[in-house]
Amino acid sequence: MENKLKCGVVGVGYLGQHHARIYSELENTELVGIYDNNPDRAKEIAEKYSCKIFNSVEELGDAVDAASVVVPTPLHEKVALPLFERNCDLLIEKPICTTLEEAAKIVEVARERNLLVQVGHIEHFNPVMGFMEEHVSKPRFITADRLAPFQPRGTEVGVVLDLMIHDIGIVLKLANSPVKRIEAVGVNVLSRSEDIANARIAFENGCVANLNVSRVSSKKLREIRIFQANSYMSLDFMNQTGHLMRVKGPMEIERVEVPIEKREPLKMELMSFAHCVIHKENPKVDATLGRRALEVALEITRQVAEFAGS
Fold it and tell me: Which terminal CB of the chain, N or C, has fewer other CB atoms within 10 Å?
C-alpha cells in the first residue's frame, strides 16, 4: 500500500513494545521510529522492528503523522503537547491523564489544532465488547471483576486508575446515562495508593454497576455480568468467551454459548486508530469519553482515600 500512515511510539516498555510491533505489521501503517528515555531499551526495540531511534519527543513528532503515547500516566500531558505542536494525531494510553485539568488541556489543544485523540481503553476493542454492544440494550445491573497478581509496574497510580478505569469506560458506554451517585471503598496493601477497591455507580436511568478490582490477587480475572429484562449474560474479557441466559418460554430459560471470534484487542485498537486518522473520523474512544471515565475514576479514588484514612 502506498502512502502508509507514518507512526511513532513514545515509550517502549511492556505495553509500548506491542504498539511498535503492531505498527510494523499493519498494512496501512509504517513504524518510522520510537523514543524512550532508556537508550538500551530503545536500541533493543528499534533493532527488533527495524526503525529509527529519535533523541527527543519533538524530533519524533517532526517525522511522523501519528503517535502512540505509552509513558507513565503522570507524563501524558507533557508528552502530548509537543506532539500536538507538530500536528500529530495521538493515541494516548489510558487513563488520558491524572487530573481533569490536564485532560481538559489535551482536549482543548487537540480541538484548536483539529487533531484526533484516541484514548487507549483497549477493552472497547475486545470482541466481547463488540458482542455486548449488539446485545445489551437496557441494562439494569452490571457487575465486573478485574483481578491481577501484584506487579510493581503501573503503581505510579492507584488500582482505580490502573485497572478499574477499563470497567468504568465500559459501563459508561453500556449504561449510556449520566452518573447519579458513586459509593466507593478500598485499601492500600503493598503500594502507597489503593490496591483493592470496590465502587457502586448508580446512573440516572436506574442502571447500577458494581465494580471490583484488585492488583494483589492470587489469580488473574477479567469478567463482567449484565442483567437486563429477559436475559442475563456472563462474559470473560481475558479468554474472550461467555454465555447468555435468556427466556425460551413460560417458566423456561436456555443457556447459549456466545460465538466470539477471538482477536488481539490491541491490534484491533491500533487498526481503528489508523483508520480514523487516515479517513478523518472520530474514534470510538475519543478524548471526551476518556475524560468522563477519568472524572468518575478520580471521584472513586477520592472516596477510597477518605475511606482508607478514616
Answer: C
